[in-house]
Amino acid sequence: MAETHTYDVAIEWTGNLGSGTDTYRSFSRAHEVLATGKPPIAASSDPAFRGDPSRWNPEELLVASVAQCHMLWYLHLCAVGGVTVVDYEDRAHGVMTMDASGGGGQLTEVVLRPEVTVAEASMVDTARALHGEVHAVCFIARSVNFPIRHEPVIRVQ
Fold first, then answer.
1. Where would one find coiled-coil regions in this protein (predicted)?
2. I need a surface site. Which of 35, 43, 65, 128 has the fewest CB within 10 A?
3. Which are the contacts of 81, defined by CB distance < 8 A and separation ≥ 6?
4. Which residues of 71-88 are buried (b: 16+ CB within 10 A; e: fewer)?
């Protein structure tokens, strides 16, 4: 039997401005993403869809999930592959393309731009190559239907 892991979160809408969803403009898209034992994530819809720009939106959270999963698997592969990473930052970028009918859209690409610092110059080639191996094992990358590209920059400490 296959091993499984479960993830439970709650979404709590906090945007009732007094008349509920009486009209498209009568309510806020404000909500919280909750999980037991963790601080809430203040969220909303994308500002293009009447969301609060000071809150996280689902599209940003999905792009962040892709970037986080890539980073965590990359660090694992480096650790077992003899590459000592001393710093890692990513400026991930997601693109949502709207449906021509105006009914919706979907993420059509995520570009990861990790900036990795390794301990020694002899590790640079392996460090660069390991980015290409992450997609095969990253849970999130294996679960989405859009391409994920990576444009790594590798530096030496």
1. none
2. 35
3. 126, 130
4. bebbbebbeeeebebeeb
| 35: helix, strand or coil | coil
Residues 136 and 68 in one domain: yes
Q: Which residues are paired to 12 by β-bridges?
A: 32
The CA R_g of the chain, rounded to the nearest whole Å, is: 19
The domain total for the chain is 2
The arrangement of strands across the sheet holding 148-150 comes to 93-98, 105-112, 148-150
Residues 66 and 39 in one domain: no
Burial of 31 (0-12, 13-18, 19+ CB in 10 A): buried
**74 belongs to a structural domain:** yes
Average pLDDT over residues 76-88: 97
Asked if residue 35 belongs to a domain, the reply is yes
Q: What is the mean pLDDT of the chain?
A: 94
Domain-embedded: residue 150: yes
Give mean pLDDT, residues 32-46: 94
